[in-house]
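Our preliminary data section would be incomplete without showing what the modeling component actually yields. Below, a chain of 336 amino acids is followed by its predicted structure, encoded as tokens that our downstream tools consume directly.
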Amino acid sequence: MSIVKKFSASILVLGIAIFVAGSCSRKPRVWIYASIYKEVIAEMKPLLEKALPPGVEVMWFQGGSETIASKVNAELAAGRTRADIILTSDPFWYYELKMAGMLLPYECAAASEVPGYFMDPDRHFAGVRLPVMVIAYNPKALDEKDAPRSWKDIIGPPHKGKVSMPNPLESGSAFTAVAMLERMFGWDYFRELRAQDLLVAGGNSSVITRMETGERPVGIVLLENVLKARRKGSPVIPVYPLDGTIPVISPIAIMKDSRRPELARKIYDWFFTDEAQRAITAGYMYSPLKRMPAPPGGREFAQLEPGLMPWSLEIQKEIYSRRQELKNTFTDILLR
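Predicted structure:
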């Protein structure tokens, strides 16, 4: 063999060796798409990585529920999503994915303590955290005698031009609130809110800001935003409405086409451990595990649960089937 041929052969062997070594050294990677707050993810990330086999790389995509749904749906339309695990606050989207055959069912022993109404009966998803929608107000900008105690209370002369809420076309939790309030009171309730000059704009943090500045001293808002603001010195006070606090069931699920299903199952399990659930409650959300403490500043789950609006798979199905109708009608009444 000539020197040139020997040299070429050596380069080929070396190239193959480098390619094989590079392939073997590539870390297994798992993607989680989550609408959890960035600071909660920052707390969870090192704990989760420690709980997984050495060398596993956990990647996070963080965004609102609507952003994540749009991203996953676009990726699926293109052939396959990168997400292995999804965690958002839009339970109706999970039902859509389940019916489309996009979720991997998993019987998670660690989730056995989760109440039945948080669980898909076919185990395609399970509630892993429980944000709740409440009323809140700023006592520095609203006379205490006018403080609302129920959803009906925010209708009437004392609150005209004083109430705001997040946009349900952008916020999954706000959409759940609209759907549940419509089930309870019908569309006339929202027509009355329109007559009250209800402001619908931005997300939950925008509602908090408007209450703090006094621009709109009453808000329909996530409890976790209120509790977080109070920890920072905000005067805003939460109200658990007498006619029902709104549960925003926030599930976890594994995508059917996950590239790492075994690792995805380990991650799913981990989210129901005490250390994961403590990170959730520290982020001012409720845990679906009744043994866990309430979020800082929130009432205990044993007090909260009896006052929650009813939730079931049947309600989830019903709202899912009317999803676009609900958005369209809300838009016609309050956004035009």
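Residues 252 and 268 are 7 Å apart (CA to CA). The chain has two domains: 23-129+249-298, 132-247+321-334. Preliminary results of this kind motivate Aim 1 of the renewal.
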